[in-house]
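Q: What structure does this chain adopt?
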Amino acid sequence: TVTSWDGIVGLLLITAVLPAHKPHMAYLNYTKLLVLTVATKETDGFKRFMRSAQHFNYTVKVLGRGEKWNGGDYMTAPGGGQKVRLLKSALADIKEKDKIILFIDSYDVVFSSGPKELLKKFQQAKHKVVFSAETLIWPDRHLEDKHPHVREGKRFLGAGGFIGYVPNLKEMVSDWSGEDDDSDQLFYTKVYINPAKRKSINITLDSKCRLFQNLHGALDEVVLKFEDGRVRARNVLYDTLPVIVHGNGPTKLQINYLGNYIPNVWTFETGCTVCSEDLRSFSTLKSPPLFPVVVIGIFIQQPTPFVSAFFERLVNLKYPKKRLNLFIYNQEPHHDKHIRSFLESHEADYKVVKLIGPDEGVDVITSRNIGFDMCRDDIDCEYFFSVDVEVVLKNEDTLKILTELNKPFVAPMMTKPGRLWTNFWGALSADGYYARSEDYVDIVQARRVGIWNVPYVSQVYLLRADVLRSELKDSDLFNSATLDPDMAFCSRVRDQGVFMFVTNMHSFGRVLNTENYQTNHLHNDLWQIFENPVDWEERYIHENYSQILNGLVYILLIFYIVYVFIQPCPDVYWFPIFTERTCTHLVEEMEHFGQWSGGGNTDTRIQGGYENVPTIDIHMNQVNFEKEWQKFLLDYIAPVTEKMFPGYFTRALFDLAFVVRYRPDEQPSLRPHHDASTFTINIALNQVGIDYQGGGCRFIRYNCSIRAPRKGWALMHPGRLTHYHEGLPTTSGTRYIAVSFVDP
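A:
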C-alpha cells in the first residue's frame, strides 16, 4: 500500500494543534479519612458536633473520654496541650501511611459538608498538612513577622482544626513533650514558622477558608446560605463555602446561632428536623408514679397583677400533682392573701410545699439558690421548673411538653401582646446586654418554628436536676458585681457549656407588664385595662361577648331576640358584657370605698351642683376609675352600639358613670325620667332572686318592663326623647347596677 506523504503531514499538523488532554485527578477515597477529636465529657456542644458528623457519615474517634480536662479554657491563659498529647498517642497506634486524619475541636464545631468535599479541597491544597487559618495572631504577637506572607487570605495558623497524612502528622507532633496546660496553638505555630519543618512536613494554611472557617476575627465575613434543604456558612470575603465551622475563642454565641441551622437543623423546606429527636414520651404513662418528680419554683418579687389567676392556671396544669413539689418565694406582703387562698384550697394536692414569705428576710438571689437546693437535695427530683409570677401559662400542657423535650435547659417562648418582646434574647452585645439576632423577629412571629439555642432566657425555664447537681452545682449562680441576677445566671450556664434552648413549637402564653401596678385599691386588677388588656379581658369580659360581634353568630343573635328576648323592648338591647368576677369586684370596690351619696338633689360632684333625678351612688371618678371606664366603653360598648344602631358612630364619651345601690329602706326605686345621654348603659352587678328581690326597669312609652336582669348583662337604650323610663322597686336585699350616660 502506498501512503500519501501529504496525508501524513496533514495528520501530524492536526495532531499538533489539538489541545493536550489533561489527565483526570483521582480523588481521595473517603474511607481513608478518620476524624479525631478530644472530648473528656459529652457536653451539649459535643452532641451537636456528633450529630453533624453523623449526618454526613464521618467516621469519628473520640480521644480522652473519661479523662479529667487539664488543658485550660479559652477565656484564661493559653492551653490545649492535653489535645496534643492525646493526638500523639492516637497516631502512634495508626499504621496505615495513606490514612488521612482530620483533627478538630468538637465542643464548638459543626460540619457543613461531607467527607467527599473535604478531601477534594484538601487534595486541591497540594500539601500534606493543611491548618485552619485566622485573621488574628494568638497567643504570641511577637511571632507575627516570622509568619510567611500569603498573596491573599488569612496569614496566621489556627490550631483548632487541621487535616493531613498520618506520617506527616506524626513528624509534626514528634517533638511534643509539653504539659497538658501548655499551648497547643503556640506549639503548632512554632512548627509552622520554622521554614525547615514547614517544608519537611509540607504544611500550608487554608487561607481562604475553603476547608475551615474560624469565626474569631471573622464574624463580618460569615453569613448563612440556605440551599435545597440544607444550610451552609458562606464566607463573603473570599466567596467560599467552608466544610467546617469553628466557634473558636470568644465566638461561642455565634457558633450556637449558626448551629441552629447548619447543616440541616432548620431549613425553609423542612422546618425543624431535630425537634422530634431524643424525646421523652409520657403519652403512654397511665400511672402518676411514672412521671418524673418536678420542683416548681414560684417567685414573686414585686407587686404583680392577676396573681390569683396565676395560681388558678398552676392548678390546671396537666401533670400529676403528687409528682410536683412547690417552692414559693414571696417578697411582697400584698400577695400574702393570694398565696394563703391558694394553699387553703390546694396545698394537700401536692407532694411537698415550701413557702418563704416577706417576713423571713430572704433576698431574691438567696431564694433562687434555695429553690435549686430543694431539687438538688431531693434524690427523686428530676427537674426544676422556675416560673416568675408575672408569667401567664396559658398552655395547660406546658410542663409536660418541656419535660418531653428532654433537654438539660429549655424554656417556653413567652411574648407580650402587640410587641416584639419575649423572654429570650437572640444575641448579646459586646458588653453582654441585649442584641437582636437576624432571626429574632421570624422566631417571635412564628415564621420560623423550632427549638433554638439562645444566650439568654428569663422568667420561666425547665432545668434538668442532673445538670443542677453537676455543671450547675455552684451554690451561688446569680451573683455578679456587674450583671443583674438573670444575666449572671445565664452567663454561668453558658460558661459551663450548657445550651439554653427556647421553643416556639407551641403557643405557651405571655408575660404581664408590672411597671405601673398599683396596690392602693381592694381589687387592683380592675385597673389593668391599659397595661395588660388581654389579661383584663380574659378576667373581666363575659366569655360570650365576642359572639355579639361575630357575623356568623349574628343569626343566632336574631334567634335569641325572638326566643330569649335579647331585644326585650323596642330599641333596648340586652347582651352579656361582664363576668361574675367583674360584678363582684366592682361592688366590693365601691363598698370598700364606702362614700355613697345621700340620694338628695344637691350634689357637689356634678357641674351645677344639682341632680334632678338623684340616686344613692358612687361615681367612677371618686375611685379613680374614670379613665379605665372610658377605655372599657370605647373598646367593648362602642362596637356593640355600632352593630345595633347602624350608621351611628359613638366616641364613647360620658358625662356620668356611677354604681347605684338600691335598698328597700334606703332608695328602693327611681321615678320616671329621661337620661342626659344619646344612649345609656345599665349593667346588672348582682343577681335577682339571690341577692335581692324586685327591681328592674320599665320603659313607660312602650309599657315594657325588664324584671329579671342577668348578672353581668348590659341594657343599652336611647337616653333622650323616646325611652322615658323608671326604676322598679327593690323589695328586699340590695341591688347594684353600673350606669353610664354615653355621648351626652
